[in-house]
Amino acid sequence: MTNEIQWYPGHIAKAEKALAEQLKLVDVVLEVRDARIPLATHHPRVPEWVGNKTRVLILNRVDAIPPAVRQLWQQWFKTRGETVYFTNAKDGNGVGQVLQVAQRAGDEINQRRKNRGLLARPVRAAAIGFPNVGKSALINRLLKRRIVVSEARPGVTRQLRWVRISDRVELLDAPGVIPTKLEDQAAAIKLAICDDIGDAAYDSYQVAVIFIDLLQDLMATAPELMPDNPLSRYKIDSLGMTGEEFVYELSAKRDRGDLERTARQILIDFRKGILGTVPLELPPN
Ligand SMILES: Nc1nc2c(ncn2[C@@H]2O[C@H](COP(=O)(O)OP(=O)(O)OP(=O)(O)O)[C@@H](O)[C@H]2O)c(=O)[nH]1
């Protein structure tokens, strides 16, 4: 049996209220999702927050998925009439395009202002998304200097702050938001695997077991997307093993059976990219 992943709705409600207030001032919303799990990192309140503002959909951590999977997502979103921008906020790949889109939206706004006899002003954009998806790293890249603190620890962006990223764009760095309720436990587990769930409480062992099961499933059903076995680095004959069997075996081999420790290390290895590119979600058919 899996314990449910838990977090603190009171805390979230407060953060959401502050965010909704700031978003009233915004012209463009940069919705940042995790390219490894673009569906699980969709926040259900985004459409309401966006209203009739311009929304730019960003799948960050593109370096963490195989290029073929990037193509599949691009296509999937396109058939839904959506343009997605893939970024690697760590090395800056794709970030210039996001800035251009925001600036174009600003130009349109200023044209409308001009038509009404108003002065031009910088466009106001906000980056929103789950904790740890890379909002601060993205803003740092847009700034080309390190101003916003970007840390591996989820939930680190505590305050809302505005930064001027060009003479035409101001950007709000918002804290990570997770829904007050996550109906879908499978999505919640993926958020935990990717560390995109802030300070929610979960059991690393259960999460790592499901992670290994997902890997095995991916290798069996989509071997072309997983040419290298991510588990081979652990030097265990993992063929056909369940998640439980694998964690147990690895733990006996190097952590004297401390399952929790082994599980944590597996998750850390994955998050650091040591296990290679793993698409934890694929576009639904
Ligand atoms: N490999 C890789 N790492 C990234 C990328 N984007 C961000 N990171 C790293 O992921 C970690 C979290 O990034 P942040 O920018 O702090 O995430 P955030 O969304 O602002 O997080 P919160 O403040 O918790 O909401 C940092 O260690 C970043 O360097 C990316 O595209 N690729």
Can you walk me through this structure?
The chain is elongated. Helix 2 links the parallel strand 1 and strand 2 (54-60). It has two domains: 9-173, P-loop containing nucleotide triphosphate hydrolases (Rossmann fold); 203-272, no CATH class. 41% of the residues lie in helices and 12% in strands. With 285 residues, it is an alpha/beta fold. Strands 3-2-1-4-6-5 form a six-stranded mixed beta sheet. The chain has nine helices and six strands. Guanosine-5'-triphosphate binds at residues 60-61, 63-64, 88-90, 131-137, 150-152, 154-157, 175-176, 273.
Brief overview:
By secondary structure, the chain is an alpha/beta fold. Helix content is 41%, strand content 12%. The chain has 2 domains: 9-173, P-loop containing nucleotide triphosphate hydrolases (Rossmann fold), CATH 3.40.50.300; 203-272, no CATH class.
- Which ligands are bound? guanosine-5'-triphosphate
CATH topology of the largest domain: Rossmann fold
Counted beta strands: 6
Tell me the number of structural domains: 2
Residue ranges: pLDDT <50 for 5 or more in a row?
none
Fraction of residues in helices?
A: 40-55%
Task: Output the strand order for the largest sheet.
Answer: 3-2-1-4-6-5
Number of helical segments? 9
Strand content: 5-15%
Overall pLDDT score: 89
Q: What is the CA–CA distance across the termini? A: 29 Å
Tags for this model:
single chain; 285 residues; alpha/beta; Rossmann fold; 2 domains; six-stranded mixed beta sheet; 6 strands; 12% strand; elongated; binds guanosine-5'-triphosphate; GTP-bd_ortho_bundle_sf; Ribosome biogenesis GTPase A; nucleotide-binding; GTP-bd_ribosome_bgen
